[in-house]
């Protein structure tokens, strides 16, 4: 579990993608509008919480395609 809520993040540090066994990632209430496609290496991710950010529907669709087993909260 990694919780990075309320940090005014505009980008996600690439080191996060090295956490391949991570199951829960919360990025609530930041300033994110996209996430690198490198997130696709995190295939064990079960929940990705993006509530309170500025993602567009297209970006969410891409994330869902990259992480088909993951529940994405927006």
Strand-helix topology:
Elements: E1 2-3, E2 24-26, E3 47-49, H1 57-66, E4 71-73
Parallel strand pairs: 1-2, 2-3, 3-4
Tally of individual helices: 1
By secondary-structure content and strand pairing, the structural class works out as alpha/beta
What is the N-to-C order of secondary-structure elements (H for helix, E for strand)? EEEHE
Whole-number count of domains = 1
User: What's the alpha carbon Rg, rounded to whole Å?
Assistant: 11 Å
Number of strands: 4
Portion in strands: 5-15%
**In one word, what is the shape?**
globular
Low-pLDDT runs: none
Q: Provide the helix percentage.
A: 10-25%
Give the integer mean of the pLDDT values: 95
Spatial arrangement of strands, main beta sheet: 1-2-3-4
Tell me what you see in this structure.
- This protein has one helix at 57-66; strands at residues 2-3, 24-26, 47-49, 71-73.
- The chain has one domain (2-9, 23-73).
- The model has no long low-confidence stretch (mean pLDDT 95).
- A four-stranded parallel beta sheet has the order 1-2-3-4, covered by helices on one side.
- By secondary structure, the protein is α/β, with parallel strands linked by helices.
- The relative contact order is 0.23.
- The protein has one helix and four strands.
């Amino acid at each position: 579990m990694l919780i990075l809520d309320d940090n005014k993040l505009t980008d996600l540090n690439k080191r996060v993608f090295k956490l391949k066994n991570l199951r829960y990632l919360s990025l609530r209430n930041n300033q994110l509008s996209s996430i690198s496609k490198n997130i696709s290496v995190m295939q064990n991710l079960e929940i990705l919480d993006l509530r309170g950010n500025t993602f567009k529907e297209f970006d969410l669709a891409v994330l869902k395609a990259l992480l088909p087993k993951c529940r994405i909260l927006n």
